[in-house]
Write a structure and sequence with these properties.
With 686 residues, this protein is mainly alpha-helical. It has 4 domains: 8-48 and 56-243, no CATH class; 288-344 and 352-397, Alpha-helical ferredoxin (Fumarate Reductase Iron-sulfur Protein, Chain B, domain 2, Orthogonal Bundle); 411-553, Rossmann fold (3-Layer(aba) Sandwich); 559-683, AF0625-like (Rossmann fold). The protein contains 27 helices and 11 strands. Strands 3-5-4-6-7 form a 5-stranded parallel β-sheet, sandwiched between helices. A 4-stranded parallel β-sheet has the order 9-8-10-11, sandwiched between helices. A two-stranded antiparallel ribbon has the order 1-2. Helix 4 packs antiparallel against helix 5 (163-191) and helix 9 packs across helix 12. It is elongated. The chain starts with 11 loop residues before the first strand and ends with a helix. Bound molecules: iron/sulfur cluster (2 copies). The site of one iron/sulfur cluster has 13 residues, from helix 10 and helix 12.
Length: 686
């Protein structure tokens, strides 16, 4: 291999060996970077605790899947593919960047493992990577500047547009790619014939071709200039990252490693404090920035500002005053302002509600989980929103419309304040030949059907309870319901921040469930299922009735007769707490598809884990946020566009919201909605 005719480590600059400058740049760069990171760590060190070191193998798997394999990026095809190109380009070029830094003061330095044949292979890869990254960066810049997707917009009241920052950073990345290629290309041009050549049609190859025949002294100057530009840009870029949305380049790996491992659950009020110790907690929830956990602060630093969460957020879609992306961005701006890189941290502790968030903004969330499902770097919103609500409830900031149902829940165990003794009245309409056993009468069974409030008391939803009972009976399931001692599961009470009321409901239900002696619980309400599975402790296995139906169909216990009217087209709406939060997507579809003559279509792009929330359950029924349109109306429109006349769901709240939405949209008689159990019950073979 010919000897390099020049090298930054042997070059002279202004009469001095350049290598001293090339030692100083990384020293200063790394010192600045360490200082900046140390300052950015300050709020995290003052934050609430959050133990995140359990289940390490699962965490490593998530890093490999979400971070290394960029699993969620292709959900937005163009942006995702471009991001993947830049990400892998960066990974490949990281070794080259380190090598280049050391080449400034060690002549001919080669990173261990990158010499010989391996080095040849690596050089091909890095030439392709730098070219591909440059092409991706140009496309991203043109897209940002001229064809910006709506999800990148920043409403005036929420701050300034982030386009200039994004373009500047893309410019820096392009500079890194061009300077590295010019550095390499000028060297190869000087080595001339016999030297190894750059990879065909890459940027380095282009530089080599353009510069062949140029005098060696000129090439040496160009090589040195390219080196200086690359070195300065590299360390400037490194130190710039923690100042804005590109901090994710550093933090996303850690954020994914520490992300939540479970869906459906809610963080405890304070990590390390048991439910029994809650009486001793002086202040509930998040009221000031420092009340957030360190992981939630890391989330704020890690937000890519890609807008995917808000793009899928139903509250944002119907113009409620909530866009999850800005929950992160406003908090990050707050952190940067109150914990500056230079100067003292501010300790004025601005209240978050009224300071950076509004009450309506925080009450607008249905906890549907669409934002978390979409976020490519594992940022969490539900726990933060619940914690902010806990803080508001603790300070007496409860919306007027929620006060009455909350008080009724406390007194009577249901949000309508109906009498406990009427809880099992629905059983009277089950029909002949179906016997419903009651724990309140001292009866027990292997299976407990936990009915929950809306299905017990609402006239329309009682039909779901009756259909469920008939299906259980038909499937030869020995079941019991609790009756007057059953309380609301408290699912939404907890998610609305009323932790102590939730604890009381949980205790009463736990006692009643134990009295049933059941070894399995069946529910028709996914909220109840989620509470019993994820909020309660020591419960028997909890099954949604759709899973039970799918099993019974498979084992031949349930058989269906053909649909009387097969001219209609059906679609299935995934309830958030059955699908996204608990991963049950197939069982309801299997049950529907077993009905002879039934034609089902998917709401493509808006089904399964991308299902659009109907408007929320539980206490959301009592809260009327400011909005331009009902979520249910958007959902009905999505079903209509998919070509469906009948929407089948598997949740009493979805049924309520969609039924209302059909009326609001003026589609009565054209569209209808059914619960899965109603559909199945009507098709059971005698
Ligand atoms: S949980 Fe749903 S409603 Fe709440 S912020 Fe996320 S996407 Fe929006
Ligand atoms: S929270 Fe996640 S999805 Fe939302 S803007 Fe930030 S990075 Fe994107």
């Amino acid at each position: 291999m010919p000897h390099d005719p020049f090298s930054p480590a042997t070059a002279m600059l202004a009469g001095m060996p350049a290598k001293y400058l090339f030692m100083l740049i990384p020293l200063l760069g790394l010192a600045c970077f360490a200082w900046i990171i140390a300052r950015r760590m300050v709020p995290l060190l003052r934050a609430a605790p959050d133990p995140r070191l359990e289940r390490i193998p699962e965490r490593i798997f998530l890093v490999l899947k979400l971070w290394l394999a960029q699993w969620r990026q292709p959900r937005y095809v163009l942006a995702g593919m471009l991001h993947i190109v830049v990400f892998f380009g960066f990974l490949i070029l990281a070794a080259r960047s380190i090598q280049m830094v050391v080449l400034g003061f060690v002549d001919g330095f080669v990173l261990p493992g990158l010499g010989g044949a391996l080095g040849e292979v690596y050089n091909v890869k890095k030439d392709i990577a730098s070219t591909a990254v440059l092409v991706a960066v140009v496309i991203l810049a043109v897209r940002r500047a001229f064809f910006k997707p709506a999800r990148y917009e920043v409403p005036e009241k929420l701050g300034k547009d982030h386009t200039p920052e994004a373009l500047f950073v893309l410019g820096l990345i392009a500079t890194l790619m061009i300077s590295e290629s010019a550095f390499e290309g000028s060297l190869l041009a000087a080595q001339g014939e016999g030297a190894s050549s750059a990879t065909f049609l890459t940027l380095t190859w282009l530089f080599e071709r353009m510069l062949s025949g140029v005098q060696v002294s000129t090439l040496a100057g160009m090589n040195l200039a390219a080196y200086v530009i690359h070195d300065l840009t590299f360390f400037f870029f490194l130190c710039l990252l923690p100042f804005g949305k590109h901090f994710h380049v550093i933090t996303s790996l850690f954020n994914v490693f520490f992300m939540r491992l479970q869906t459906g659950n809610i963080k405890p009020v304070v990590h390390g404090i048991s439910d029994a110790q809650l009486d001793d907690v002086k202040s509930f929830g998040v009221k000031k920035f420092e009340d957030f956990t360190w992981k939630h602060m890391l989330d704020f630093y890690s937000c890519v500002d890609c807008g995917r969460c808000s793009d899928r957020c139903p509250a944002n879609a119907v113009k409620r005053p909530l866009s999850p992306r800005f929950i992160s961005i406003k908090a990050r701006d707050y952190a940067f302002e109150h914990y500056p890189i230079l100067g003292k941290s501010k300790t004025d502790h601005v209240p978050l509600i009224g300071g950076i968030y509004s009450e309506d903004e925080i009450w607008s969330c249905t906890t549907c989980g669409a934002c978390e499902e979409e976020c490519p770097v594992g940022i969490e919103y539900i726990d933060k929103i619940v914690d902010l609500r806990r803080g508001m409830v603790d300070d007496g900031m409860v919306p007027q419309s929620l006060q009455k149902p909350l008080s009724a829940l406390e007194k009577r165990g249901n949000p309508w304040g109906k009498l406990e003794k009427k809880r099992a009245e629905w059983t009277a309409g089950v029909g002949e030949g179906v016997q419903v056993k009651l724990v309140e009468k001292g009866e027990t069974a292997e299976t407990l059907y936990f009915v929950d409030s809306i299905t017990s008391y609402d006239d329309r939803m009682q039909k779901i309870a009756q259909a469920t009972a008939r299906i259980l009976n038909k499937g030869n399931v020995d079941f019991v319901v609790i009756g007057k001692d059953e309380k609301d599961s408290g699912h939404d009470v907890r998610r609305f921040g009323e932790e102590m009321l939730f604890q009381s409901l949980k205790e009463q239900n736990t006692e009643a469930i134990k009295a049933s002696e059941a070894r399995r619980i069946v529910v028709n309400d996914p909220h109840a299922m989620n509470a019993l599975r994820n909020d309660y402790a020591d419960m028997p296995p909890v099954q949604h009735v759709s899973e039970l139906i799918a099993d019974a169909v498979e084992s031949g216990k349930l058989k269906f007769k053909p649909l009387a009217n097969s001219s209609k087209t059906y679609t299935y709406h995934d309830p958030c707490y059955l699908g996204r939060h608990n991963g049950t997507y197939d069982a309801p579809r299997q049950a529907i598809d077993c009905i002879p003559g039934l034609k089902r279509v998917e709401m493509e792009g808006n089904c399964r884990d991308r299902s659009f929330c109907c408007g929320g359950g539980g206490l959301m029924l009592f809260y009327e946020p400011e909005e331009e349109q009902r979520m249910g109306v958007v959902r009905v429109e999505q079903a209509r566009q998919a070509g469906a006349d009948v929407i089948v769901t598997a949740c009493p709240y979805c049924l309520t919201n969609i039924e209302d939405a059909i009326k609001v949209a003026g589609l009565e008689g054209k569209m209808e909605v059914l619960d899965l159990v109603e559909l199945v019950d009507g098709q059971l073979q005698d």
